[in-house]
Write a structure and sequence with these properties.
Spore Coat Polysaccharide Biosynthesis Protein SpsA, Chain A, globular, about 35% helix, seven-stranded mixed β-sheet
Length: about 280
């Protein structure tokens, strides 16, 4: 708990038995009140390992619902269990749990409504093992999305995210895809609603046991990302309504009040009489 706000870590899992323990052991339980793992019908021992580790809430899908479908269950369960801050942490150990605390603090202090761990901030992206073609495509897609959506993120495609309760209660994420493009759709909805989004640098970790999207799914994801950006722009202009933003009011949660830092008191000038 931070500032009286309940922190919940949600782990969307699929065939994560080899990396789950390593990930969970580094979760800072001094500030994390609840850990939820949703298993998307894995073919390995992910559920058994989760129970052995004593993870607070373990849910198993009877059939595979996809990456987005898994997250929908994660967020519904987090809200049901009273979460004020929900942090999505992949159990494949690609994202360090050490950043859970700073991500949570960004929201707990009400500085941001959404906090992202960006792999493209800093200078360790390629040295951390991200393949160059993925790095280049990530850069290109992010640039295109920034231009179309009129934002300025360093990365749209990170899976390390923290959301405030207010965001998840007011975003119709149930309308989103059950596939990999879910993350981009949710970000587009966040921007449309006017929520504040912040980023911190997150190191990359690529290794054989880590999950990775296939080439075919990568192509579908790229096309889906471009479609989401265009849906956002056309809907914002009123040219073509999109189900992603159905019932949403644009910039409803946008804060026009700037952040002010308390100014230091003016120094006192003391005149010393000459002897």
């Amino acid at each position: 708990m931070i500032h009286g706000k309940k922190v919940v870590v949600a782990m969307p899992a699929y065939n994560a038995e080899k990396t789950l323990e390593r990930t969970y052991r580094e979760v800072p339980r001094d500030i994390v009140d609840l850990v939820i793992l949703v298993d998307d019908a894995s073919h390995d021992r992910t559920v058994e390992v989760a129970h052995d580790l004593g993870i607070d809430l373990v849910i198993r899908h009877e059939k595979n619902l996809g990456y987005g479908g898994n997250q929908k269950t994660c967020y519904r369960q987090a809200l049901k269990n009273g979460a004020d801050i929900v942090i999505m942490l992949h159990p494949d150990y690609q994202y360090t749990p050490a950043l859970i605390e700073p991500l949570a603090w960004m929201i707990a202090h009400e500085t941001y409504d959404v906090a992202l761990g960006s792999r493209l901030l800093g200078n360790s992206t390629l040295s951390g093992g991200m393949p160059f073609h993925k790095y280049a495509m990530n850069r290109v897609l992010t640039l295109v999305e920034n231009v179309i959506i009129w934002q300025h993120l360093s990365e749209y495609h990170t899976g390390y995210r923290a959301y405030s309760r207010r965001v998840l209660e007011n975003i119709p994420f149930q309308n989103n895809s059950n596939g990999f493009v879910f993350d981009n759709q949710l970000l587009a909805q966040v921007f449309y609603a006017g929520f504040r989004v912040g980023e911190i640098s997150c190191p990359t970790k690529y290794f054989p046991e880590a999950s990775s999207i296939s080439f075919f799914n990568g192509v579908l994801y790229t096309l889906g990302v471009l479609q989401v950006a265009m849906e956002y722009r056309l809907h914002a202009w009123g040219w073509r309504p999109s189900v992603l933003f159905e019932g949403m009011q644009r910039n409803r949660f946008k804060s026009s009040a700037p952040f002010f830092f308390e100014s230091a008191p003016s120094p006192q000038i003391v005149k010393i009489p000459q002897s």
